[in-house]
Amino acid sequence: MKLAWILWLASVLPPQTADSLCLSTTVYLEARDQSVRGQKAVAEVALRRRDSGLWGNTVCDVVTARKQFAPTLVAPGTRLTNTEAWGEAVTVALDAERNWALPPGQRKEIVPGASHFAAHAIASPSWRTAYQVATIGDHTFYKVQSLKPRRT
């Protein structure tokens, strides 16, 4: 599957299904070579950002916000070819969504408060001196800003 096709499909699916697809795609592109814990941490950052409303109101908005996550950083023609990793990314994304649907005090957070992450082997963001929440595999997770859920 090509990334461009997946993002087009997400644009025509019902919002909840689209968000699951966008989150799965992001987990795959950002962390398919990481542990399940690392993949869950990536999903958690995207879900926390969605709740804040600062990058958009849906997971798809968040992960396709300019220069924030892999779906906007890799070429649209990128093929997602590792079917085993894709299956794991879908499972991780769905599990993360179920966990995140719980009340905040009942969620199992892996990177509490993390609003950003970076793989320093390939990126050197300006905010890399922010508070480090955790390092999992090749990714370091940061609390760059306090994200509070928007008022509904």
Fraction of helical residues: 40-55%
Distance between the termini: 36 Å
Structural class: mainly alpha
Radius of gyration: 14 Å
What's the main sheet like? Answer: 3 strands, antiparallel
The coarse overall form would be globular
The overall average pLDDT, rounded, is: 93
Give the spatial strand order of the biggest sheet: 1-3-2
Percent of residues in beta strands? 5-15%
Describe this structure in words.
The structure is a single chain. This protein has 152 residues and is mainly α. Helix content is 47%, strand content 10%. It has helices spanning 3-12, 15-31, 36-52, 59-63, 70-73, 83-100; strands at residues 116-119, 131-136, 139-143. The chain has a three-stranded antiparallel sheet, covered by helices on one side.
Highlighted features:
152 residues, mainly alpha, 3-stranded antiparallel β-sheet, globular, SleB_dom1, Cell wall hydrolase, hydrolase, hydrolase activity, Cell_wall_hydrolase_SleB
Helices and strands in order, then pairings?
Blueprint lengths: L2 H10 L2 H17 L4 H17 L6 H5 L6 H4 L9 H18 L15 E4 L11 E6 L2 E5 L9
